[in-house]
Predict the 3D structure of the following.
Amino acid sequence: MNKNLLVALIVGILSFSSSALLALPSDSTKVLVIDENSKPVAAIEVLVEGFNKIKTNQNGVSSLYTPKKLLMPFDVEIESKFYEIDNFSYDDLTGLIEITVKKILLANKEVFVTFVKPDFKPYTSLSINYLKDSYMTNAKGQIILPYSKFNPDGLIIQGMEVNKVTSFENTYTVTLSPVEQDKDFDLALANLSQSQLNDLSFKKYQIEFEIISNDIIKERVMLVESNNKIRSEIELITKRLQNEKNLTTQQRAELRNFIGNLEQSMVENSEAYKRSERKALALINKMRDVVVQRDSINLATINQLKLLEKKRIETEKANHRTILIVSFIALILLLVALIFLFIVRKIKKQKNELATMNEELTNTQKQLSENFESLSWQKSIIEEQNKQLDMFVYKASHDMKGPLKSIAGLCNIATVTVKDNNSLELFEHINKSVLKLDNFVSDLLVLAKATNSEVVIKEIKLKELIDEVVKSFKNFDGFQKINIENKIDPNLIFKSDYNLSYSILQNFIENGIKYYDDSKNVSYLRINAEKQTGEILITFEDNGLGIEDEHLPKIFDMFFKINPKSEGSGLGLHIAKYGIEKLRGRVNSRSKKGEGSTFELIFKNQ
């Protein structure tokens, strides 16, 4: 116990000393935190980019000591499980940072929906589709939805229609009745033109687009709520670890329960992200099909207009010949006057047809213009949603890094201060789970940065870059057991983006080390590069474990892992392929189980 107190005293003195050194500058910036109603919020911890954390007093005010006046832009964060930042402003004249926060609305994890007949008897074993997912009612006519809210408009039930929906808290009762076939409606559809049917189909896709868009937004809200829950549980575990020195058996059980909740929340967070990603991709594919379908319709209309124009020209030529012949015959033979009158009536009829065709041509051109504007607007919406999704992934991953590092640091301190073997074993499990999640979050950050970063081309000495990447794996498990051969010419210059190139090479070298075959006497990873016509070919060849033929086409898919129990995130090769394509390159892969793998990276030498 005396040793523990001594360690705590030394840490406190060091913390106080570092805080005092940071407080030496003379300039002071005032920080004010208020809620939506402009009321001060007390006891909120604020972190301004590049400075120590501060806490507001009862008046929502705190002071930040800086060496000189702050300059925008800079980031501001708060640590609270009840509030989140709505917006903030900085007045460089008065030196005031004003932060407006709003309360976080927590939602239920599950929704219970019961489907009954008009006589209140339950529908058992009924197939339900809700938000693109399929469910089957149980013996009580009930399904459980992993959502915070329930929207009856998202239900699709074959042969059924919704009569009534009642709710109490997170429990809903839906009354269904069979749908009678409407023969008049089918007859009306049969009488519609192809253009009218196409318009109905397009409106149907527009409605589905709006519903799916709203669903994606709801799932993003659910992901934010899940992240807030993770932060709350992490804070709770951290406080218990900081404030309680000797834990009883009951307290250890509670701590294990907290850890279980944390891991479950992480799984839910990952699943929510996957569902949102799948739905966003499905939405994009659906709208792409609609655009293709509309383009096909427009192309058919244009071809029809060309045929009408050709027919009109041919008709005009025929009319011209007819007039000449009739005039010549009228001058010679008055007896053919009746024939001439008949031809004149025919000409008038053809002129009317031409006028009708011209009117149809004008209407069709107007419709094509409106369709183009509508498709452009929908494309801008999809691009904005993809941008918001990328920003959300980056922000969520960035916000999780700090708490994870705090837990890892506490676990390292515990291994020194705690003497109980059971507690040490528990902290080791916590540290492994935190490191696994930290690696996953790091991969998400790399993917987000690769998505949003601009390509900056400069000259790179390829051999030096690969040597630097290899050196970074010096302490990596298995590094000493594999022979890495870098056969690249030292004078070979590669024009490309340095950060993207480093990330790509790092992934292939890491896989070559990680999946070596310890049953072989000599394990190797051979790296070579050569210039071709306007391109550079980089080859990675190893004699490691190899990949089965059935798995080889999937290795670049997001979250794909050959062994589901492996500690990797399944993002490494996906990030590498994304970077290769962003640099306008391509990758070829060959592998055989038990013999090794070869990867060929072809880049344009920009």
About this structure: Residues 81 and 228 are 6 Å apart (CA to CA). The two ends are 64 Å apart (CA to CA). The first strand starts at residue 27 and ends at 34.
